[in-house]
Amino acid sequence: MKKFFSLILLFTGMFLGFAQSDLSWQGYFSYSEIKDISQAPNTVFAASENALFSKNTGTNIIKTTTTVDGLSGETISTIYHSTALNKTVVGYENGLIIVINEQDGSMLRIVDIINKKLSPTIKKINHFLEHQGILYVSCDFGIVQFNLSTMQFGDTYFIGDGGTEMQVHQMAFFNGYFYAATSSGIRRALATNPNLIDYNQWETLASASWIGITTLNQELYAVNATGAIQKYNAVTNAFVLFSQLPNPAIDMRVGAGIMVVSTPSTLYLYNGQMILLRELSANQIPETNITFTCATVIGDTVYIGTQENGLFTTALNGSSVFENSTPSGPLRNNIFALDLTPSVLWAVYGEFAGDYNPFPLDSYGISKYNKEGWLNIPYESVLGAQTIGKVIVNPINENQVYASSFFSGLLKIENDVPTILFNQTNSGLESLTFGGPNNVDIRINATAFDKSGNLWVTNSRIKNGLKVLRTNGQWQSYAMDKILDVPEENNYGAIVIDKNGTKWLATSEGGVVGFNENGAAFKKMTVGADTGNLPISNVRTVALDTRSQLWIGTSKGLRVLNSVNNFLSDTPLKANPVIIIDDNLPQELLFEQFITSIVVDGANNKWIGTADAGLFLVSPNGQETKYHFTTSNSPLPSNTINDIDINGITGEVFIATSKGMISFKGVATKANDDLSKAYVYPNPVRPDFQGTVKIAGLLDKANVKITDVGGNLVYETTSEGGTIEWDTTAFGKYKVASGVYMIFISAQDGVETTIKKVMIIR
Where are the transmembrane segments (predicted)? Predict the structure, then answer.
């Protein structure tokens, strides 16, 4: 497809950043899963799943770095900060290395290891050792030299028997030798040996699998996979048992002259004489289900990385006080669904597979975001609801939220507190029956409020699959066997309700089902030219646009029903593909793409998310692809788009991916009913401002004219939706001079008008 948005970003080994990132993108990442920690004299650097943060130990100022700043969305495996060069080096599980210059924030992306002709499963980067300006990179295949000054790679050492690949977990330099803790023993070689590329130069000092190796007070220590801490004896050239931990070790490092050996449940802190100063148990931290990943010491403070609860600090001297130093964010990066109002965002994490299989069940909480920041409701507070896969805010009462569990029922949340879990015992919801009478499995997914405030609910894999919770608290069910051949085999994706009250349901086996309470009319569109013209019966999402068209996303492409207004009269209903012309040849828009989400913005553009091809923005009729965002040309952390929603007031588009959520700050906002709320921002426009002037709160198709105080026209346009942009030029020719400019706004019919002013300061 030629009509796509392209950004220059990658040359060989170089990452230049995203040209529009400063103005257009915002990251909303979780920092809870700490992968690694590094340190400078007054700063701790922490790597989460695919984002970084640092904390100045003197000022307590926290700085975050995400894909919006240039990081990859891939999974981070290790991090190292070079105090000498003031650079932070990030290693990834896929072999990628990103070097951050802390002085100016620039980043260099190193792809040489990714490009090595090795199995992709053995390119993980485990550790960085800096020695005389060279980084020795421990990988799952061996060791690689990297010059941190010139940004060039040197030799690669395959130190396994016969020169084969070998997992190297950590390296240390001690008394002139490099020591490598590997999956098959401890190996060493003389650092000055010019032929380290020869595996024969690496002698084996100990067998078994070793997790870490480091120096402390002029001694060398290592820990193996069983938790045995051993000390190197130079006389015997062997490692001797020092202490046997009760559990396997996962990390070993030294900070501030303190060695910290980590197990998932306990931290062991030793001083320079290897006297155990402190033993920290996960049970000492007030949060529940703490799992340690790593820890270090800076000054007199212990910094503790955890699996799901972020970074904690505590005093080295034995204090029982623990402080969470993690930046605020959602519970997890893999946000499965979200719902958005102008002032609040809700996110849930309970994913199910592409075939709607919820097993193995997950036990995650729910997150809320507003101007005050993030509020995370833990799993312990959601009344046992598992695999929560959808969430919806009551448009009439923003303090009332419903979260759909694809196993446990429907959770009601009032004033941020889960209050009731609707299930088969206290509501009209039903458990599927093929698991036997004692098996309770209530699969609730899509929900939608109608204009009367009734909540419509889909209950998968049962006969009465469509439910409604009336405003009076009563439940009503509708049997789907009238329209679906085997409703017990059908799962439901999205549901939308049009202005005529027709409910449109995406199903896994029966295409799109339409239902109108007027006469209890059911109709459907499925495969076949005469039965709906869908490419496949597996429909994942549906969306209504401002022209009453129904956009249908399936697991094999896109279809559009030209009008929902003819639901009761048209037989059969028929959807059509969007045909575009590319290279003078007609072809189908998003042919056979697995479409996961469709959202319509205020200008009737369609934001379309896919399972593995990123995000598309297409024009109202689909003929123009305005943007195609992927991990290669944008800050998207993943090409797997789980959900999309738009703030209709600001135009900000929120994109939930499998590896984090970001937003794109568009200008396509919903149109207003009148011009009473029209406004201009920024105002005044100061000399250092680099963006565009927005005129918001408009009617759709409003005419906007901008003139100088002398009445000379400098810009004119017609709004699509509620906002227009002005680049402060005279019709794109030159920047207008300093002064006050008049903005004349009128409705399409000319009946309603208003005048605004904006000051330009050059």
Answer: none
Sign for the pseudo-dihedral over CA of 331, 332, 338, 344? positive
**How far is it between the farthest Cα atoms of the chain?**
97
Half-sphere exposure of 655 (CA within 13 A, CB side): 32
**Which residue has tokens 């998003």?**
590
The backbone torsions φ and ψ at residue 726, rounded to the nearest 5 degrees and listed phi first, read -130, 125
Burial class (CB in 10 A: 0-12, 13-18, 19+), 312: buried
- The burial class, CB within 10 Å (0-12 / 13-18 / 19+), for 436 is exposed
Nearest Cα residue to 151 out of 194, 121, 112: 112
DSSP secondary structure string, 472-501?
TS-EEEE-STTT-S-GGG--EEEEEE-TT-
What does DSSP assign to residue 93? T
Q: 3-class SS at 114?
A: helix
> What angle is formed at CA 683 by the lines to CA 679 and CA 689, rounded to 5 degrees?
130
Q: Is the pLDDT of residue 225 over 50?
A: yes
Residues 354-370: what's their mean pLDDT?
96
Report which DSSP code applies to 115.
H
> What residues pair up with 367 in beta bridges, in sequence order?
347, 376
pLDDT at position 667, please? 67
CA distance 323 to 326: 9
Q: Quick one: tokens of 3?
A: 């009509």
Summarize pLDDT for 44-53 with one digit per residue, the tens.
999 999 999 9
Going by C-alpha positions, the residue among 500, 410, 425 that lies closest to residue 458 is 410
The answer to whether residue 18 scores a pLDDT higher than 70 is: no
- Cβ 76 vs Cβ 120: under 8 Å: no
CA distance 540 to 598: 10
Mean pLDDT calculated for residue range 185-194: 97
536's tokens:
């496949």
CA pair distance 693, 7, nearest whole angstrom: 24
Q: What angle do CA 84, 44, 252 make, to 5 degrees?
A: 90
Radius of gyration (C-alpha) of the chain in whole angstroms = 30
CB atoms within 10 A of CB 106: 13
Q: For residue 248, what are its two tokens?
A: 């396997």
> Mean pLDDT, to the nearest integer, of 572-580?
94
Q: Which two tokens stand for residue 129?
A: 């050792």
Single-letter amino acid, residue 521: A
Kind plus residue range of the DSSP H or E element containing 635: none
Coil/strand/helix, residue 761: coil
Q: Measured between alpha carbons, how far is 215 from 250 in angstroms, rounded to an integer?
A: 17
Q: What is the pTM of this model?
A: 0.88
For 531-671, list the strands marked E by DSSP.
Answer: 539-544, 550-554, 557-561, 579-582, 585-588, 595-600, 606-610, 615-618, 625-629, 641-646, 652-657, 660-665
Closest CA to 735 of 680, 690, 681: 690
Per the CB < 8 A criterion, the answer to whether 745 and 755 are in contact is yes
Is 761 in contact with 684 (CB distance < 8 Å)?
Answer: yes
